[in-house]
Amino acid sequence: RYEKRRQCVSSSGVTTGGRGRRGSMPPFSRCLAEEGMSIRSFKLVRGGSFQEEAVAAMLSKPGTRDVATSEHALPISGTRNLSDNLADLKAQVAANQKGIGLVAELIAEYSLEVVQAYMTHVQNNAEYAVRCMLRNISRVQHLGEVDSVTAEDFMDDGSAIRLRLTIDRRDGTAEFDFTGTSPESYGNCNAPRAVTFSAIIYSLRCLVEDDIPLNQGCLNPISVVLPPNTLLSPSPTAAVVGGNVLTSQRVTDVVLMAFKAAACSQGCMNNLTFGDQSMGYYETIAGGAGAGPGWHGESAVHSHMTNTRITDAEILEKRYPVLLREFSVRRGSGGKGEWAGGDGIVRDIQFLRPLSVGILSERRSLAPLGLAGGGAGARGENYVVRAGGHVQFLGGKNTFMVARNDRIRILAPGGGAYGPPAEK
Questions:
Q1: Which of 57, 271, 387, 390 sits 20 to 30 Å CA-CA off 203?
Q2: Which pLDDT tens digit goes with each residue over 33-44?
Q3: What whole-number distance in Å separates Cα of residue 332 and Cα of residue 227?
């Protein structure tokens, strides 16, 4: 009787409630508590009833820091937008219930044994596809039967991400060893272990040419070495908001470079937040994708570890006190080579009332690398343009106040090229 068996259904989402800074994406957070409420375990629905009062109490409670940051650090408030937080959670509960219902329908039609068998078949097929891909890459790169390749890249603050990839062609397995990666950062670009695993499974699925669904079977032939208390395996209280949206992109670039599969993409999500006590807004901005053997990088697209859609200009201007002055392709920002990197984006937003603004971005100091002799993509740039015309450079991470008619101008990075440019 399947009613007594357990099935797991998961969902995820983005919240913009925030603590300390609007939008839950503080550029300078130093500990997890400054980034939002951390809930280790809580029964959200009990006896068919959504536990709204208990959830509201948790979200409204001010946070406390586990580490000393600064004597000038802002207090950690509770959520400023409880109604949106509750709506997000209820939507996820509804999505899970829908998933449970659909799985139950499958079981009712085909039986539990058949459904579980096919779930296993899907994972076994993914495992087989990854093993075949690893064997093929080992041969194409003329590696030994058991051999290693390396790749590394750096965050704008100099933190290193180092990978030694060892492929065993005998059984189609691989070890991803990140030993040598920099220690945990006193900042927010630390990436929890799950983020690195997500980047790896995404990269593996990209490299598999067969049409398979993404699933855990892709990781069955893979082992991962992540030394503790490093950038990719931080302590439980470390700040991580930048790790999910920035470091994850760098990990993906490093993995794909190790496989010699693609040049670096923009390596960033260009996280922009603004708001005040009454509202908050958060968006990610696309850029240039890296090129590969036989294809140019795409321009003005989200790449790799992000799939968010940006708000339509008409909706943005209707719902928020801003005007979108420019949203265009940043021509010429892609790397030059046999296969060119994709161009980035220019996004220019004018504010119609005083607001707090934050930018959390990467690739402002170090350009997205090309591969196989291809040129690097252009670095990103962030500016605030004051109402009187005065321009100030913001760097990659900053938070600041704007007055009426001030603007933020963001130039997203381009992608790296593949192969040297043709001689004239």
A1: 271
A2: 888 888 888 999
A3: 40
What is d(CA 154, CA 176) in angstroms, rounded to the nearest whole number? 17
State the sign of the Cα–Cα–Cα–Cα dihedral 90, 91, 94, 96: negative
| Strand partners of residue 397 | 360
From first CA to last CA, the distance across the chain in angstroms is: 72
- Token pair in block for residue 265: 């993409």
- Report which residue type is found at 123: Q
Dig out the tokens for 352 from the structure. Answer: 């119609």
Q: What was the pLDDT predicted at 12?
A: 53
What letter represents residue 410's amino acid? I
pLDDT of residue 39: 85
User: Which residue bears the tokens 């189609």?
Assistant: 172
Tell me the C-alpha distance between 349 and 283, whole Å. 12
Determine how many CB atoms are found less than 10 A away from the CB of residue 303.
25
Specify the DSSP element, H or E, that contains 275.
strand 271-276
Q: Mean pLDDT across the stretch 273-296?
A: 94
Q: Which amino acid is at 63?
A: G
Is residue 115 within 8 Å of 107, Cβ to Cβ? Answer: yes
Is the predicted pLDDT of residue 92 greater than 50, yes or no? yes
Cβ(367)–Cβ(413) under 8 Å? yes
